[in-house]
Structure formats: structure tokens, C-alpha cells
Amino acid sequence: MPNPLKEKLSAGALVALMSAHNPLSARLAEEAGFDGIWASGFELSAAYGVPDASLLSLSQHLDMTRAICEQVSVPVVADIDTGYGNAINVLHVVGAYARAGAAAVVIEDKIFPKDTSLLAGGRQELVRIEEFQGKLAAAKAAGAAHDLVVVARTEALIADLGQGEALRRGAAYAEAGADLLLVHSKRKTPDEIVAFTKAWTRAIPLVLVPTAYPQLTEAMIRDLGKIAIVIYANHAVRAAVGAMRAVFAQIRRDGGIHNVDKQIPSVEDIFDLQRVGAMKAAEKKYLR
């Protein structure tokens, strides 16, 4: 079966992924017209109420990714952080995500356990280039039977190691077989990423996550060239937190749900998202 993400990438248009932390948020992203889903480790950690610091187990993230894959028709890209260990762990982990239905995995070059990239004062230590090349080679081997896309993520700019180190690592990861390179930055403007993109000469395309520099629009990204995917990496959980805070506060202020009930989606809207209609049609057909 062809990899749906590869089909989108081969079309040449910029692929936009929206984050999700469960099948409902993934279905809403698909409904909005995004090209695919980012099965976000940060979002799932937040949903569990714990820091994004390699605290969730493989099974917790894998089970949710599988559930997302089962409920949407667009490709799902799994955020597997550092791969849960060394290259042998990566062999096991990537094979499991491929069998679960992920179209791609993104693996980063930080040590395990990791701190989330945009955390002020976080631990941003990177593994040796050769070690990460071995992890990428293992990921490619583990996903080969499923035509899995392997995205290497370098945190060299996050770790303040500079453009030279980021380019050196990116080139090494391309040589190791990565299909794309995700380059991340914590700067509040896109200047650092723009400079990296202009200096990037390898054949594999780039992936951007403009969380810290939201002024970089898709039109600007297209103008840069060399960039195949943009990931909106945490906007589902941030939107959910904002909406729930507002609704919960209004209910307490009003002393009931009599005002807020008109402002939120109806129960019938949730039924539609749950595809209750399809279930009831199946009942008519099969229940005897």
C-alpha cells in the first residue's frame, strides 16, 4: 500500500500538519483541512498532566498514535522523541509505529531522557553524530517493509551550538538515510531558520515547526523553498486549554450552564464527531 505522506510530498505542495493528542482532536484537524496529523509527545504529555520529559511510556504514546491512525484518513506523523533509547530500542519502537499505521516518525538527536525544546533552562544535550546516524539507519531498516518516512530532527540550534553544527549534523543525517530533516529553533524571529534554509544544500527537504516564530506564514515558507512540511506542534492542546478555561470560569461566574450552553458545540455535534449515525445505520443492518 502506498505511503500517503509520500504521495503528498511527491505532489510538491507544502504539507501542513496539525498536532493532536487523541482521536477527537485529530478528527477536528482533518475536518479543518490539514494535510496530516502530528501525534505530539508534548500534547499527550500535557493531556496526562506531566512534563514533556520522556516521562510517558512507549505504550502510552504508541496506543494513542494507533487510536489516531484508526480514526482519520490523513497521514499521521509520530513524534517519537529520542526513540526511547539506543539504536536497538529504535529498531523495536519504529517497527511498532509502522505496524500501528504511522506514515512517518520523527526522531531527535538529544540524549534520553530529554527536556522539551522550548523550555527555558531545559537540558538540551545532544548525542554523538555517529550514534544518531546508527539510530537513523535502524529506523530506516525497521520501517522499510511499510515504506515509512523517517525524519531526522536536529536540536543543534535549540542547544545554541550554532549554524555550523546544525548544518554538519543535518548533512550527516542525510547521509545516514533520513528522508527529511527537521530543524528547530527557539528564537522569537525566523531569522535563524531562514539563514539555515538558505545555507542548506543537501537533497533532502526540510521540516519546520514555527512555534517560537509564528510570524512565519505558509506563504513565506513556500517562498523560502527547500521546505516540504510545516508542523503546528502544540496548537490543539493550547486551544483546548483556552476554551475550557473560559467555559469553566463562566459556569462558575453564572452559577450554572444556562448561558454557556448556547456558546459551545451541541451534544449532537459531538455525536456527529463520534460518527454515531454510522453506528445506528449498522445497527439497522446487522442487529437481528
Describe the structure.
This protein is α/β, with parallel strands linked by helices and 288 residues long. The protein folds into two domains: 4-234, Phosphoenolpyruvate-binding domains (TIM Barrel, Alpha-Beta Barrel), CATH 3.20.20.60; 241-286, no CATH class. Helices cover 47% and strands 13% of the residues. The chain has an eight-stranded parallel beta barrel with strand order 1-2-3-4-5-6-7-8, surrounded by ten helices. β4 (104-108), α6 and β5 (149-154) form a beta-alpha-beta unit. It starts with a helix and ends with a helix. The model has no long low-confidence stretch (mean pLDDT 95).
Mean of residue pLDDT?
95
Order of helices and strands: HEHEHHEHEHEHEHEHEHHH
- Could you state the CATH homologous superfamily of the largest domain? Phosphoenolpyruvate-binding domains
Q: What does the radius of gyration come to?
A: 20 Å
Q: Which residue ranges are poorly predicted, with pLDDT under 50 across at least 5 consecutive positions?
A: none
Strand content: 5-15%
Q: What would you say the CATH architecture of the largest domain is?
A: Alpha-Beta Barrel
- Major sheet: order of its strands? 1-2-3-4-5-6-7-8
Query: Helix proportion of residues, in percent?
Result: 40-55%
Number of helices: 12
List the domain count as a whole number: 2
Main beta-sheet strand count, sense and barrel state: 8 strands, parallel, barrel
Helix-strand makeup class: alpha/beta
Distance between the termini: 36 Å
Query: Looking at CATH, which topology of the largest domain would you report?
Result: TIM Barrel
Total strand count, please? 8
